[in-house]
Specification:
- Pfam families: Lysine_decarbox.
- By secondary structure, the protein is α/β, with parallel strands linked by helices.
- It is built from seven helices and seven strands.
- It is globular.
- The relative contact order is 0.16.
Length: 197
């Protein structure tokens, strides 16, 4: 797969640890230096703004997608290559998914989790074949990886789909893994069998 653009899901806040901001800047710098475009939620605040600023500082391309209803709350970034103002969160996520060749989730809140789980579900259903990565700063996503394993053990996720993500604490190492990754979830069998429907 030829990856040229990466969608990053992350918080509109900075978080409690300085490592989160450092990771956002490092990820943006890596994206810019590698000539990879950033697709993200369009805000100029929090980790969202930090990763975008770092890509732009390296001369990279940044595509933001922001719903009108969040334009004042998240404060639209004013210096992006492209800023698309859309009517709904659904349109935002669909456009980001369409414009990206791969996905990375950084630390964030409920919105970040929702975006990550939706794009992972779409992969499981075969709606896209793009790799998904977790930037696991300070083991932020350790509990999620453990939850995925628990769901496998309890029979809710097939073993073959136990780890749909590549993950690393280092932005550069994560990008290396992501660029080499194949489609994370291959729906070789029906998602719902007769006993599950």
């Amino acid at each position: 797969m030829n990856i040229r653009s990466i969608c990053v899901f992350c918080g509109s806040r900075m978080g409690a640890r300085p490592e989160y901001l450092e990771a956002a800047r490092a990820l943006g710098t890596e994206l810019g230096r590698r000539g990879l475009s950033l697709v993200y939620g369009g805000a100029g605040v929090g980790l969202m703004g930090a990763v975008a600023d770092a890509v732009l500082a390296e001369g990279g391309q940044v595509v933001g997608v922001l719903p009108h209803l969040l334009q004042s709350r998240e404060i639209a970034h004013k210096n992006l290559t492209e800023l698309h103002l859309v009517d709904s969160m659904h349109t935002r996520k669909a456009m980001m998914a369409e414009r990206a060749d791969a996905f990375i989730a950084m630390p964030g809140g409920v919105g970040t989790f929702e975006e990550l789980f939706e794009i992972t579900t779409w992969a499981q259903l075969g709606l896209h074949h793009k790799p998904i990565g977790l930037l696991n700063v300070a083991d932020f996503y350790g509990p999620l990886l453990a939850l995925m394993r628990r769901a496998v053990e309890e029979g809710f996720i097939p073993e073959a789909r136990a780890q749909p993500f590549v993950h690393d604490a280092s932005p550069s190492a994560l990008l290396e893994s992501l660029l080499k990754a194949e489609q994370p979830l291959t729906p070789a069998t029906p998602v719902l069998g007769p006993e599950q429907s």
